[in-house]
């Protein structure tokens, strides 16, 4: 989901939600920030008309695995003097939902994140009820969500998109897995040409000697055997 809006003070806000890591996400976020920032100018405009762009990424996966904090914000600061800010026009926020173990409901951000993570789960802990009662903006967002889910045409379009995305992700996953197995199969065949023993090939390819022997015995069908064995183990 991708939402673009302009705040009352003129800043552009782009909110994106992603449920899986497709790789190069930092570069992707910077690219789309650049796109929105650059689109502000048309022929004849000068740089004084540029307004800050806040890019908010709400992620259902861990992007920065070595950092415990779930909210990270990147800005343009001088390397050796971090208090020196080049401009406040760039800010990239990353909110990683899986890192959240407890919510501070005195914070507006945590209220929103709890809602986004738990909407539709029918939790009966009373937290959602209190959040909706005390946060008119979140209550308004929920009304729009319910209106959307009850609109048959919109729901069908959404479900169709979800089915397409799942099929696309599955096809991509299969293609990547097949590529890895093709590389492993090619490695086995090349090492065999160097008269290496199955035990030696197994150590290099991280297979068992029995698997290596089976692949060699299968010849051209060895790739299929690797994929079938992987499917059986998973």
Automatic annotation (TrEMBL):
It comes from Desulfobotulus mexicanus. It comes from the Bacteria. Pfam families: PDDEXK_2. This is Rpn family recombination-promoting nuclease/putative transposase.
